[in-house]
Amino acid sequence: MNGRAMRSLLAVQFLAGMNLNALFVRKKRVKAWLATVGMAALLSPSYIGIVVLQVKAFGFLRNNGLPLEDMLLLGMYAASLFMILFAGIPTVYASLYQSKELSALLPLPFSPWQIVAAKLAVIYVIELLVGWAFFLPALITYFAYGYASVWHLPIALIGLLLMPIVPLALSAIACILISNVPGVGQSKWFWYIGITVALIGASLMLTTGMMAEDSGAMADLIQVRMRQIAQIGHMLPGAQFGMYALVDDRWTAALHQAANVAVSVGYVLATLAVGSALYIGPILRGDAARRRSRVHRGAAETRGFLASYVRKELLCTLKDPAVAMNGLGGYIALPLLGVTYTIMKIQSKGKVDIIGQLDAMLHSEQMATHLPFFVVGIALGLATFGSLSSLFAASYSKDGKRLWIEKSLPVAPFSVYVGKLLAGYALVTALNLLTIALATLVVPFRAQHWLYVIVLSQIAIGWNAAFGLAVDAMRPKLVWKDTVQAVKQNMNVVLAMGVSFAGIGANAGALKALWDTQAGPPLVYAAALALNLALLAGALAFGRSASARLARIQV
Amino acid sequence: MIEIVGITKSYGDKRAVDNLTLDVRDGEIFGFIGPNGAGKTTTIKTIVGMLRPDSGAVRVNGVDVQANPIEAKLGIAYVPDTPDVYERLTGIQFVNFIADAYRVPQDVRVPRIAQLAEMLEMTDALGDVIESYSHGMRQKIVLIAALVHDPKAWVLDEPLVGLDPKASFALKGLMRQHADSGNTVFFSTHILEVAERLCDRVGVIVQGRLVACGTLDELRTSADSTLESIFLDLVDR
Questions:
Q1: Gap from B193 CA to chain A (nearest CA, Å)
Q2: Which of residues 52-71 of B touch A (CB under 8 A)?
Q3: Does the distance separating the beta carbons of B88 and A15 come in below 8 Å?
Q4: What one-character DSSP code corresponds to residue B129?
Q5: Strand residues in B12-75 grouped as ranges (E)
């Protein structure tokens, strides 16, 4: 192995993987530093909160004479390992399977082991920083309070350096093994959904585990919760040596740390072997090309332009999970809200029950007199979920440099606009109807009310979509590296949300005026419909005018 | 020198390269031509060690690429058909990285990079981040990186795509110069006029099989036939 070549490979991986050049290259550094400082400022309040919480937890134990400091430290350590494990999976997947650099690396005189090692080294450093950020305050406080002697310092330092190895190796091995499963392993959808479910599962596991034996007594509670987290730490085979090296007596701690070193070396070698055989190996065998050759194309079908364009938009959107997930708008929050609601209801033993309160309110006397306002309010509330979708305000932007295709087609720009509108609208409509179907289970409206909710929410989603799309048609963001950037870091999405909120505000104002004048149900229903139809007409007129700019947009 | 001995590579049912045998000598430019999907890139990737053949062997400068990949690669430079490189590095960082990988000493690489950058008009752009480069500039930085270690075998996949006429002229000059220094140049192209004027020998691959190989004179069936007419005749057969 040539040392200089390997050092250079590592340096390049760090520069490219962590985008360090952005901080030093003249043309980019101001923006990069501003972004870094801004991000640090944004995150620092929550981080300071975590640090204060950790310090206070140790202080509480000390002030109350509770001998639970070891348990607390182990719990924090195990939680850090899990954070590394779960953060590691998407990071490993992105680094190994979503980068294009292998075509540059494979012809170079490096062995597969060296390439895998260099790639994982970058993730190791990132995860080391993640783990330290979370665990170091607890460890420092533990030492500061004199729970550990100076003798433990070198043992703890070794432990800190080895900390990410077990969870990261498990993430990497899992990621590589799953990626080799035919059919699902390379599917972006599988990874997006898998990671989301894993994260929800992990938070549920920690939360439900923490409330299992709630005795009410603080000491018992801390003991139970930390012991449970520490037990979860045992689910990472081999991690227990590093954990107990932190709190054991001198020689036992040294022995445990020695075992931790041996286990870590074993994990590193296993990961490199798996990576070499199952990550680089399939590329050298040409497995991806083999898979592609098995895909048979269906017969060509003839469609009208609009149908064909809507189909193309839907396929492009659904095949790009980053765009599709961002396009889910507020709907993506629904499962999380459901989980949070269930946890809150169970934890409070039924005292906190938002749906129950809503149900009670809807059965109240007020409901009878102000029903139309509730119906309109719920329709507009549901429409807000759809209006938060970025499918529309980033629809032109996500085409990026490929927008030349639309520009060169022999069709009116408004046809492209309508095609994009219908494709996004079809997706959001499906989600809106699903949400309404779920809402019927908890809200006691009659059938005609639900019909009205469907119609009004669809119209409201329509004008939101048409406005958002028009905003993007005016000045799309066509230069980006990946579609996530086109969708997430896009001012048009923010502008479109502003327009949406203005529209919702207009609706709220109108409802307030009708409430004050004690308008009857027919007037409330008709006024809300009329206002939203007017907004829809205005949005489509704006869209027609904005879409004409397509000819002037430079790609 | 590149020796390809009976390599076969299949992707599922599709045989991309079928029992291909070919020798490319030192000091010659070898043009590898064929229709789309004929197996050119698969062959090239096998030569440079990016793909393992199902059977057969490739030796570059006498070293078996499959058995001793690192030793073999030290004598090869590869220019891919699409210049996908580290966008976040500056041009000079990328070239230096490649030079480190090929163990090029400092006193050799500095004048060489300067000379190549000058020739390809990249001197001013070397300090810029690659993401700011045009397609042609990316192609040029890949060419500089490929030649920084003065490879014995230079393998290029469609190297002229995206280059401006001046850079294209410079590249053809570099290829000639490299071969005249006793090295091997192996490249694939669809531009038959270039192959006709530049190559010492040409190989034609169709559906994974080498259907013709030799100098233009050897391939000619009549005195006035061009490479284009020879190629079309072979492909339509």
A1: 29
A2: 52, 69-71
A3: yes
A4: B
A5: 14-24, 29-33, 55-60, 63-64
- DSSP-derived pairing of the beta strands B29-33 and B184-188: parallel
Q: What is the pLDDT of residue A203?
A: 63
pLDDT tens digits, B81-122: 888 888 888 899 889 888 888 888 989 999 999 999 999 999
Q: What is the pLDDT of residues A456-515, one digit of tens each?
A: 999 999 999 999 999 999 989 888 877 777 887 788 888 888 888 889 889 999 999 998
Binning pLDDT at 50, 70 and 90, where does residue A201 land?
low
**Residue A452: other Cβ atoms inside 10 A:** 20
Class of residue B159 by CB neighbours under 10 A (exposed 0-12, middle 13-18, buried 19+): buried
Inspect the interface and report whether the beta carbons of A11 and B85 lie closer than 8 Å.
no
What confidence score (pLDDT) does residue A298 get? 46
From residue B175, give the alpha-carbon distance in Å to each of A333, B48, B135, B183. 59, 18, 20, 10
A180 CA to chain B: closest CA distance, Å? 16
For B97, which of A12, A21, A283 is closest by C-beta distance?
A12
Structural domains of chain B in order of their starting residue, each with its CATH number: 1-69+191-237 (3.40.50.300)
For residues A12 and B97, is the Cβ–Cβ distance under 8 A? yes
Strand partners, A237: none
Secondary structure element (H or E) that encloses residue A110, with its range = none
Chains A–B, number of C-beta pairs less than 8 Å apart = 106
DSSP B237: -
Length of chain B: 237
B187 interface with A at CB cutoff 8 Å: no
Q: Encode A365-411 in three state secondary structure.
A: HHHHHHHHHHHHHHHHHHHHHHHCCCCCCCCCHHHHHHHHHHHHCCC
The conformational region for residue A324 under phi > 0 = left, psi -120 to 50 = alpha, else beta, is alpha
Residue in chain A nearest B11 by alpha carbon: A290
Residue A332 is classified by DSSP as: G
| CB < 8 Å to B132, chain A | 27
